[in-house]
UniProtKB/TrEMBL annotation:
<dbReference type="Pfam" id="PF01068">
    <property type="entry name" value="DNA_ligase_A_M"/>
</dbReference>
<dbReference type="InterPro" id="IPR050191">
    <property type="entry name" value="ATP-dep_DNA_ligase"/>
</dbReference>
<dbReference type="InterPro" id="IPR012309">
    <property type="entry name" value="DNA_ligase_ATP-dep_C"/>
</dbReference>
<dbReference type="InterPro" id="IPR012340">
    <property type="entry name" value="NA-bd_OB-fold"/>
</dbReference>
<dbReference type="InterPro" id="IPR044119">
    <property type="entry name" value="Adenylation_LigC-like"/>
</dbReference>
<comment type="similarity">
    <text>Belongs to the ATP-dependent DNA ligase family.</text>
</comment>
<feature type="domain" description="ATP-dependent DNA ligase family profile">
    <location>
        <begin position="114"/>
        <end position="227"/>
    </location>
</feature>
<protein>
    <recommendedName>
        <fullName>DNA ligase (ATP)</fullName>
        <ecNumber>6.5.1.1</ecNumber>
    </recommendedName>
</protein>
<dbReference type="InterPro" id="IPR012310">
    <property type="entry name" value="DNA_ligase_ATP-dep_cent"/>
</dbReference>
<keyword id="KW-0436">Ligase</keyword>
<dbReference type="Pfam" id="PF04679">
    <property type="entry name" value="DNA_ligase_A_C"/>
</dbReference>
<dbReference type="InterPro" id="IPR016059">
    <property type="entry name" value="DNA_ligase_ATP-dep_CS"/>
</dbReference>
<dbReference type="GO" id="GO:0003910">
    <property type="term" value="F:DNA ligase (ATP) activity"/>
</dbReference>
<dbReference type="InterPro" id="IPR044117">
    <property type="entry name" value="OBF_LigC-like"/>
</dbReference>
Amino acid sequence: MDLPVMPPLKPMLAKSVRKIPPGMQYEAKWDGFRAIVHRDGSELVIGSRTGKPLTRYFPELVTSLMDALPPRCVVDGEIVIVHQDRLDFERLTERIHPADSRVRMLAERDPASFVAFDLLAIDEESLLETPLVERRARLATALDTAGPQIHLAPATQDQELARQWFETYEGAGLDGIVAKPLDLPYRPDARLMFKIKHERTADTVVAGYRFHKSGPIVGSLLLGLYDDTGALQHVGVCAAFPMARRAELVEELEPLLMDSPDEHPWSAWAQESAHEGARLPGAQSRWTGRKDLSWVALRPERVLEVAYDHMEGDRFRHTAQFRRWRPDRTPVGCTYAQLEEPVRYDLAEVLSWRNE
């Protein structure tokens, strides 16, 4: 491979802001795997956010990208999987599997798509120093005849339309808006763009914690919600605390330590079969490997209000943020019913969007 921009290449990143800033290009924030595609004739590499190749995990995309992309180019985008008219991140994570036979079975069952939003090189020309607005125009031209699995990301300079996208696109599984300065060159691994994500709050039950990797202080609080059957389901963690606060939490939560964890709602977490019928903490996966996932069981009596952006199935998609203890609330009221359900939106409408 001999391109003006060579792999591995880390993508340009975004920093979080609360409001959509004016005077920029606005795009949907896709909930998938960030990927930079390098194509040089018959050679094609799909690189991850860390620079490691993802090519073997998405064989169906290799074929589609070879058909859709110019013979020599570098394109930044997102790999997504669509299921029941929504983005499905859990099905995407299933692809990271060591067995080629399983990867190909999943590729046939749930084919992935690639959403392109930046052009970094074409033919013999590097576009890293080219302003974003020009890169976008050239990307639209390059993907003018893209196939059904390769999409041009919707983009607009209309701030009011971006606000509408922020409200409606979430119903299709997208999780916010990315704002990009129009004259922005491409800077790998630099946070020069802006992301605006939804933030909601929920009252959750604190039912345990894991120790921090540095020692016997709290690493993360384990959060639960009660389902319709009255079972406490593990929905995520709250983990961002100053080091001093982590030590304080150990003392603060000590009165809730259980004499015997056998009576805890999640006491069966160490049994692999138990994870098939309930969401429990500590399940081993290809992401955690041999990582120690043991945890300290607490009586599920304290209520914590957390902020979250959106749900992935029956759990928080990302780490929740500590807001405040709620001594005025009872754990029995911490149910899924309190969570806001976004109005569904047809993902096909998003993926079929083209520039006017």
